[in-house]
Amino acid sequence: MRSEAPTITLRLQFRISLPFLAMFIVKVKSNPPPHRKAWRSTAFGIYGYLNFTKSGFLEHSKNFKPEDMSTRIDGKNCIVTGANSGIGYAAAEGLASRGANVYMVCRNKERGEAALSKIISTTGNQNVHLEVCDISCINDVKSFASRFKAKDVPVHVLVNNAGALENKRVTTSEGYEMNFAVNVLGTYGLTELMLPLLEKSQPDARVITVSSGGMYTAPLNTDLQSECDEFVVMQFKDGEFNGVEQYARNKRVQIALTEKWAEKYGNKGIGFYAMHPGWAETPGVTNSLPAFSKSMEGKLRTSEEGADTVIWLALQPKQNLVSGAFYFDRAETTKHLPFLGTKNSHIAIDSIIATLDSLGNFSM
C-alpha cells in the first residue's frame, strides 16, 4: 500500500487599506479613455468617505493640540472673502474671537450686514468690518483693492474662501464662466493686488486659500473655460456643461497657484497655504449639490469643523508651516492621489498665470 505524500498548508495574510485597494483595482483594470473620469471619481469617493466626513474629522482630531488654537492675534488685520455664511463665516468668527481686525468681503450687502452684526454680537469684537465686493467681477475686485490700499494698513492674513459651483453654465457680465471667474480669476487677482499690503506685515504675512478635495480628480489644464481633459477638447455647449468637473479643475488651479506664489514671492516674507475643509454641510453645498447633501445627511462636517484648519493656519508660527503646501485637518497632506494621473500636470501653471494676467490686467 503506497503512502500519500505529506502536504503542507500555507496561509498568507495581507493587510491592505481600503483606499489603496480601491485605487489599485481601478488602475489594473482596463480603462479606455471614456471611463477614466468614472474611475477617478470612484477612487476619490471612497477615499473621501473615509477621510472627509465628520467621522474623519473626529478621528483626525484625536491628534489635535488644544494649545494650537489658544493663540491671540489682537490687532492683526485679516481679510476673509465669502464671509457671510458657511466656512467663510466660521473662519471670520474664529479670527474675530481671537482679537483680529476682520474685514468680511461679501457680495451681498444685506447678508453681509446680518453676518457682521452676528459676529460682533457673538465675539464682542467691535473691529469687524464689511467690505462689499463681488469676487466674480474683476472691476469689483480692482475697486475693492484700491479702496483697501487707501487705508494704508498691513494685511496679516488673506483668506481666499469665496467660491462658486454653478451646475449650469453662467456667464458673468464681463464674459467669463462663473465658476472660473470666482474660483480662479477673481481669487488670483485679489491675491496679486493685495501683495503690497501683505508685504507690510512681513515676516508674518500669510495667504490661505480654501481649495477642495475635488481637485484630486482633475489634472491641471490650460483650457480654463471649456470642458477639456486629456482626451476631449471641445467648447461647453448647452447640456454638456459639467459644473462639478469645472469646479474640480478650478480647485486644482488653486493648488498649483499656491505652489507658484510660494516660489515666486518666497523672499517677501509671505507664506502661501492651500487647505481642504473636508465635506462640510454649508449653504453652498446644499444649494449646489442637493443630492449629495441629502445622501450624506448626518455625515457631513459642520462649518466650524470645515474652518478649523483655516484658523489653525492663521495662528501657527510660520516656521512650523510649509509655504506652498496643501493642508487638511491641521496637517500637511498630499496634493495627488495614486494612479489618478494628476502628478505631472502642474508644469502648466506658468501658461495659466500668463492667461490670467492677460485677462485681468492686474497691475495697479
Which series of helices and strands comes N to C? Answer: HHHEHEHEHEHEHEHHHEEH
Low-confidence stretches: 8-32, 227-238
> Major β-sheet, in short?
8 strands, mixed
Count of discrete domains: 1
Q: Count the E strands.
A: 8
Task: Using the coordinates above, name the CATH class.
Answer: Alpha Beta
Fraction of helical residues = 40-55%
- Quaternary form: single chain
CATH architecture term: 3-Layer(aba) Sandwich
For the biggest β-sheet, the strand order reads 3-2-1-4-5-6-7-8
Strand residues, percent: 5-15%
Radius of gyration: 22 Å
CATH topology: Rossmann fold
CATH superfamily: NAD(P)-binding Rossmann-like Domain
Number of helices: 12
Describe what you observe in this structure:
About 45% of the residues lie in helices and about 10% in strands. The chain has about 375 residues and is α/β, with parallel strands linked by helices. It has a single domain, classed as NAD(P)-binding Rossmann-like Domain (Rossmann fold, 3-Layer(aba) Sandwich), CATH 3.40.50. An eight-stranded mixed beta sheet has the order 3-2-1-4-5-6-7-8, with helices on both faces. The longest helix is centred in the middle third of the chain and has 22 residues, at about 180-200. Mean pLDDT is about 85; it is low at about 10-30 and about 225-240.
